[in-house]
Design a protein that fits this description.
The complex is a heterodimer of chains A (114) and B (115). Chain A has 114 residues and is mainly β. Chain A is built from no helices and eleven strands. In chain A, a hairpin with a 7-residue loop joins β9 and β10. Chain B is an all-beta fold and 115 residues long. Chain B is globular. Chains A and B meet through β4, β5 and β10 of A and β4, β5, β8 and β9 of B.
Chain lengths: 114, 115
């Protein structure tokens, strides 16, 4: 079975400050990992993905994440927060064969303080 | 190109009625998924279609839920005899399912309210 844990259901950062959203995974097989963002009343938008290539993954909107197998982590970061980053962020895991259904974390709501 | 589209965007129905939710995946994507997003349960997998293979229905919460995918493209999720606990946002996603490309692209969702 696979699972992800997102630490912190709510995170607030000041505009211009570092954004760090935490995700830890559990998987019995090599995982594929994803971060999605959801703006109010919209679907999920893919931010970035890890599929066993480079461990440091760059995504859209200046976000990046690093896969650390030793820590079973895939934390999302952005050097400088922007007001438009306010949204809910979901970490998700899947396996690389069979039914690749996504198993999501519970989400982290990011608030940007002006 | 066009993304995943879903219709209707909102649906209000009375308890006990049947509803149909539609999903148009991205052209050429062989994998199609349905998920449900609710306050109490978060994001849950419902059903998975891959090409002409039998669907994986392991996430369907009850036999009142069913889905089909016609011609490997459009999919319809049907909920019979709706209950208030079915109220949620139903999300459809499609993916290319290629080596190294397991990402899924989501539609805007259908918000279902059962009164």
């Amino acid at each position: 079975a696979q699972s992800v844990t997102q630490l912190g259901s709510h995170v607030s950062v000041s505009e211009g400050a570092l954004v760090l959203l935490r995700c830890n995974y559990s998987s019995s097989v090599p995982p594929y990992l994803f971060w999605y963002v959801q703006y109010p009343n919209q679907g999920l938008q893919l931010l970035l993905k890890y599929t066993s290539a480079a461990t440091l993954v760059k995504g859209i909107n200046g976000f990046e994440a690093e896969f650390k197998k030793s820590e079973t982590s895939f934390h999302l970061t952005k050097p400088s927060a922007h007001m438009s980053d306010a949204a809910e962020y979901f970490c998700a895991v899947t396996k690389n064969f069979g039914n690749e259904k996504l198993t999501f974390g519970t989400g982290t709501r990011l608030t940007i303080i002006p | 190109g066009a993304g995943v589209s879903q219709s209707p965007s909102n649906k209000v129905t009375e308890k006990g009625k049947d509803v149909e939710l539609r999903c148009d995946p991205i052209s050429g994507h062989t994998a199609l998924y349905w998920y449900r997003q609710s306050l109490g349960q978060g994001l849950e997998f419902l059903i998975y279609f891959q090409g002409n293979s039998a669907p994986d229905k392991s996430g369907l919460p009850s036999d009142r839920f069913s889905a089909e995918r016609t011609g490997g493209s459009v999919s319809t999720l049907t909920i019979q005899r709706t209950q208030q606990e079915d109220s949620a946002v139903y999300l459809c996603a499609s993916g290319p399912r290629l080596a190294g490309a397991r990402e899924q692209y989501f539609g805007p969702g259908t918000r279902l309210t059962v009164t």
